[in-house]
Structure formats: structure tokens, C-alpha cells
Amino acid sequence: MTAYEGNNGVDKGNSPKKRKDNLHTDESRDSYLNQKPATEPAQCPVCGNIYANKRWYRSDQYDLSEDESGLSFMCPGCRKVKDNYYYGELRIGGSFLKNHRQEISGLIQNEVHRRQEKNPLSKLVEVEVERNEETARGEVIFHTTNAKLAELLGRALENAFGGELEVQKSEPITRVNWWRDKKIE
């Protein structure tokens, strides 16, 4: 028996529906979510998330009793981080970023933690810092495990600091740009 269960390409009539805007939900196109542990409960050795009752929980949301020997199985969120695979991108730039980096970083971390209460697989995959030598401007790019997280982070920045938000939903990555003083190009 393998550590994965899947539908082996068989449609059992419960496949996700396409959205009206012709974009798939993260779940319908995300092959990482189709890989599930063979037995329950299972615990992610990286973040501690627990798979039980056919869904993932944060370790503080599910009591893994001593008599339950959880299988070690890396959760889809941690596998995406390991593989550097993302569905969302948040790009932040401008002089406001330079002068408020700590506040922005704290807000991002708090929002990720808050989102993980609803979806423990929501994670930051990577944080890149880019610097344009011609303009001497810097940008920070956050890659997220799902499109919704990137959009929520952008909206949180807009609510907290004002500025402009631009959301580009496309297959397979949703790109979100936030700036306060100069548009990101």
C-alpha cells in the first residue's frame, strides 16, 4: 500500500466545478491536494499540521491523543514550500515599503497566521527582495501556496495603509500588486 490515495484519473461525479469566470478554484487544479495519507491521523513532520477526518488541521486545532500513532506525512502546504510551487504572488514596492518594512512584515505574518486558522495549508512559499539599479527602487515579492492568500494579504495592506491594490486573476497564478506612492510596473 502506498502513502498516497488518489482517484487514479477516475471521475466519481464529485470533481470540482469550473467557476463562471473560467478560472478554476485552487482545489480543482492543485495536484498537491490530491495526495493524501493512506491512514488517519497523519502529522506533517515540518509544520505539525494533522490530517484527520479527511481534512488538515493545525496542531492546536486537533488533539492527537497518545494512543493515536500518527503517520508522518508532509502536508500539501509544506510540499509546495519545499518544491517552491506557488499559486499567488504579492508584489509590494515604493518608498513607503522602505520606510515601513517592519510594520508591513508584521502585518503579513499576522495575516498569514490568521488565514491558517481557516486553512492550515496557507503558507508563504518564498519572499524575494528585488532591487532595480536604474530606479534605485526595491520591491518585495511574496509567493503563497494559494491564490486567495495573496489576495487577502494585498487587501489587508490596503485596509491598513491605504494605497492602491491591483489584482490580476489568471491561470495558474493570481498576481497582486500593492503600492502607496508609486505604481509597480
What does this structure look like?
By secondary structure, the chain is of the alpha+beta class. The protein folds into two domains: 26-83, no CATH class; 88-179, 2-Layer Sandwich (Alpha-Beta Plaits). It has five helices and nine strands. The chain has helices spanning 26-29, 76-83, 95-99, 101-118, 147-161, and strands at 42-43, 50-52, 55-57, 71-72, 88-93, 124-132, 137-144, 164-169, 174-179. The strands form two sheets. A five-stranded mixed β-sheet has the order 6-7-5-9-8. A four-stranded mixed β-sheet has the order 3-2-1-4, with no helix packed on it. Helix 4 crosses helix 5 (147-161). The longest helix is centred in the middle third of the chain and has 18 residues, at 101-118. The termini are far apart. Mean pLDDT is 81; it is low at 1-26.
Spell out the key features of this protein.
2 domains; 4-stranded mixed sheet; 5-stranded mixed sheet; elongated; 24% strand; alpha+beta; 185 residues
